[in-house]
Amino acid sequence: MTQKNVETAMWVLRIAVAGEFLGHGVFALQGKAQWVGWMQQLIGMDAGFATQLLLMIGVLDLIVAFFVLVKPIRAIVLWAALWGFWTAILRPLVGEPIWDFIERWANWGAPLALLFLSGWPKKGREWLEDATAR
C-alpha cells in the first residue's frame, strides 16, 4: 500500500467516524426517547436525569466528531473506538437482538482501524499527538 493510499484510507475513516459521532451526537442532543429508556433500564435513573446525561453525551460526541475530522488526536480516536464498542454492545444488554451489535461493528472498527493506520503509540505522550502526523 502506498503512502497516498494510506492517507486516502485515513481520510475515509476520519469522515466515517466523524459522521457516526455527529449523527449520534445530534440524536443525543434531541434526547432520543429510546436511548433515555435504555439509560433508565440499565442504570435505573429517572427520565429527567437520563435526558440531562444524554445531553452531555451528545456534546461530547460532537466534540469527538470535530477532533476526528480536524485533528484526530490518538487518545480521542481510542475513545471513539471504546465508546463505539460500548454503544454497540449496549443494545443486546438492553434486550435488542445480537444482530444490532453485529451491525454496528463499524462503530468501533473504523476508529480502531484509523488508530492502527496511524501507528499504535509506544510512549504515553504519543496518545496526545495527531494520528495523521507522521
Automatic annotation (TrEMBL):
Keywords: Membrane, Transmembrane, Transmembrane helix. The chain crosses the membrane at residues 12-29, 49-69, 76-93. This is DoxX family protein. It comes from the Bacteria.
